[in-house]
From TrEMBL:
Annotated stretches, region: Disordered: 118-172
Native species: Niabella pedocola
Protein name per Swiss-Prot or TrEMBL: Clr5 domain-containing protein
Biased composition regions of type Low complexity, renumbered to the chain: 159-172
Lineage: Bacteria, Pseudomonadati, Bacteroidota, Chitinophagia, Chitinophagales
Length: 172
């Protein structure tokens, strides 16, 4: 029995992208390989594959392939933005945008953590599916109990099974 060499995970993803790339080149011609939009899409795919396997347990071959992939990503960036000044300005803008987004996300989470949700409004009555069903009425929690500590489960109406015809009573 001949053992076939298994492809690495990164190699499988790269082969899938290569098939897509070949289809696009067949459809739009060979000039698309140098198009800026095509290069940006290719760079996005390389970036996605790099992020996908960045924190995974990889063997030595996959680690080397990931390093080569990162180099290809940088080369595509230089090819899409050949002017070093434009590249520098783009990198500064991307960094500033990421910093603002991160600050906003952290600020939003901190604000949600500091301000407790408004629990003074009670949920409306449960929606009944049939007119015969009655909502459950049970003891309400006392007002002195802290609402922030107790987590209530949503109330559901009790489901009644239909009674057989022989057991039903006729009201007169």
């Amino acid at each position: 029995m001949e053992q076939q060499e298994q492809k690495s995970r990164i190699e499988r993803d790269m082969d899938a992208w290569k098939r897509i790339e070949d289809k696009l080149i067949n459809r739009y011609g060979s000039k698309i390989a140098n198009d800026r939009h095509f290069l940006k899409a290719k760079r996005q795919i390389y970036k996605h594959i790099h992020r996908k396997y960045k924190n995974k347990r990889l063997n030595q071959y996959e680690k080397a392939e990931l390093r080569v992939l990162r180099g290809q990503h940088r080369q595509l960036l230089r090819q899409a933005y050949p002017n070093p000044v434009v590249r520098l300005i783009r990198n500064i803008l991307v960094f500033a945008g990421n910093t603002i987004k991160l600050t906003g996300d952290i600020g939003w989470k901190a604000a949600r953590w500091l301000v407790p949700p408004d629990r003074t409004q009670s949920p409306g009555p449960p929606v009944l599916k049939n007119a015969q069903q009655k909502p459950q009425t049970g003891p309400r929690p006392s007002a002195t109990r802290s609402q922030g500590v107790v987590r209530k489960m949503p109330r559901r109406p009790r489901v009644q099974m239909p009674m057989p015809q022989s057991r039903q009573r006729i009201r007169r």
